[in-house]
Amino acid sequence: MPNANDASTPRNLVPDLERDYRTFETALSAGPAPARVSPEALSLLRTYGRLVHDSSASLALISDGDRSSVYTRHVLDSLNPLSIFERPPASALDVGSGAGFPGIALAIAWPETSVVLLESREKKAGFLEHAVRQLGLKNARVVCARLEDDGVDWRVGPAASVFVRAVGDLPHILGAAARRALPGATWVYFLGGGTDEARLISALAPLGIAARVVPGAFGGRLLTGSLAA
User: Fold this and answer.
1) d(CA 133, CA 53)
2) Cα-Cα-Cα-Cα dihedral sign, residues 102, 59, 133, 45
3) pLDDT beyond 70 at 10
4) What is the pLDDT of residues 171-183, one digit of tens each?
5) Is 167 in contact with 60 (CB distance < 8 Å)?
6) Chain centroid to CA 144: how far?
7) 39-72: per-residue pLDDT in tens?
8) What is the DSSP letter of 71?
9) For burial by CB atoms within 10 Å, which of 9, 127, 197, 229 has the most?
10) How far is 123 from 53, CA to CA, in rounded Å?
11) Is the pTM here over 0.85, yes or no?
């Protein structure tokens, strides 16, 4: 585990990340109590942001314009769900994990939660494996598969929570996720700035899935509900 005494000093950051990291650190410290993270978790989040920054150019993990703001645009946004859970869920499924947003950030913040990072693209799944090893995350597992691949045994139990960020067709995703989740599992969808949440809520109604919009811990908006029991 990283030294907690180093958590507030971005010694392993390149110059173009230092300002963004400071803003990120300030936002975390000002967040609501349920969203506070330990010094050890902060150190890991710092390292994780650097891993994404350094690998993104070759793997297209995030846009080039986002590399210098990876902490505030992606890591911090990934932590928005922390405030809507009374306690960390026992397990979580990150659908279409990509660079690990939000799954790796949540695995760091919730060390007792078993997190599955689902990513069908081999290169990005390879990055996730690398990041999990570098960060020493014993509670995170990468599955290189599609959510719809019913015949594939992931060798993990059904998830108590499901997270979807930057992936489309929410009704289809939640319908497929229900087969990989516990009855009544909490799901969370990250709403973008131009997302029509009323249309999404209406589209989910025929599936028997109720949804509501809630504020995230750090300014984002989340659509959330429970999968059918």
Assistant:
1) 17
2) negative
3) no
4) 999 999 999 999 9
5) no
6) 16
7) 999 999 999 999 999 999 899 999 999 999 999 9
8) I
9) 127
10) 16
11) yes
